[in-house]
Amino acid sequence: MSNPVILYLPLLVHSDVAVQRQATTILLTHYGNRALTYLRRLLDDPELADQARLALKNIGEISGLRVELRPFRGVYVRCLGDFQVFIDSRMIKPDEWGQSEGGKAGGRKVQGMFAYLVHCGVEGATRSEIAEAVWGGTASASSFARTLTALRQVLQQCGGEELAASLLYTDRQRCALNPDLYQSDADLLERTFDLATRTANTQGVEAALSFYQYVLDLYDGPYMEGVVGAQEWAAERGARLLSHVVLAGERLASTALHNGQVEQCLQYCQRVLAHEPRAVGVLSLLLRAGHRLGLPAEIQRAYQRYLSATGINPRRKRDDPVVKLYRELSESVEDRGSNGG
């Protein structure tokens, strides 16, 4: 589904305020403030605009968040999770990448070229670098030209000739996107994480929690997932982005546990471990939170995912910090059971 919040619309505008409140809680817990962006993208949809506007108002009243009721504007590139490009509120559909006139090049290569240029940022890339990234080697001049033309036509059809001409720059040697005309979730995540780090270092972790929260909210899956050729050129940045998310989640969960917000701690840990089950610090916090809440099934599930992801044999590696903590918590439960008996 191109916009996941559509399923929540009937609940967000329900006549029963309790239903609205429950839907708002679920939506914000799962998507964070990105839910508001998803709803704003529906404000240009003639069939859903009225519901989306009412849903935004209700969320604002229930949550206290500042809600913007204007349609979403600008070029936004979603690099985390399924790769998507939005021009204003309109998403470029998967089949549109390969449907432009003269666009005989495969749609995945057209999309891959755009994604790689987003990855390269302001410097752009040479034609040979793009060929290596998208084709996995060299590309004939005619094949490269067809793909580049198809990309330009996709941008023209979805955003107009002026946008296409301003956004995509090409010459005989290099291609690049104008960084002033688009933003991406990956760039936002990196800038927000840097701000969180500086704030935590100068003012303490508590002062940086809202920034760490935004980092966690922005992450919706692996960097450039599903983009042709990205397994090679996106891996390093993808690992760095995930490490930012793990640290942000750990800071949030640790603070919540310290403040006695054990369920909140558990939720933060679950969100991070869904993306990185090997995160030792986060998993340790989940084990402690699950132990306090009396959730052995959740503890066991997370622990088994960790063992499977790392390939650790707990009988042979008893000094592993997660294995050690799991055994200690299990033994304390057994001791309580014995004393209670």
From TrEMBL:
Instruction: Report the Gene3D superfamilies cross-referenced here.
Output: Tetratricopeptide repeat domain, Winged helix-like DNA-binding domain superfamily/Winged helix DNA-binding domain
Task: Report the InterPro entries cross-referenced here.
Answer: AfsR-DnrI-RedD_regulator, BTAD, TPR-like_helical_dom_sf, WH-like_DNA-bd_sf
The answer on whether this UniProt entry bears the keyword Acyltransferase reads no
Matching Pfam families: BTAD
Q: Kindly indicate whether the keyword Transcription regulation belongs to this entry.
A: yes
Please give the superkingdom of this protein's source: Bacteria
**Domain Bacterial transcriptional activator, first and last residues per copy:** 184-330
Give this protein's Gene Ontology molecular function annotations: DNA binding
Q: Name one GO biological process term.
A: regulation of DNA-templated transcription
Name the keywords, alphabetized.
Transcription, Transcription regulation
PANTHER family to which the protein is assigned, alphabetical: TRANSCRIPTIONAL REGULATOR REDD, TRANSCRIPTIONAL REGULATOR REDD-RELATED
Q: What is this protein called?
A: Response regulator receiver and SARP domain protein
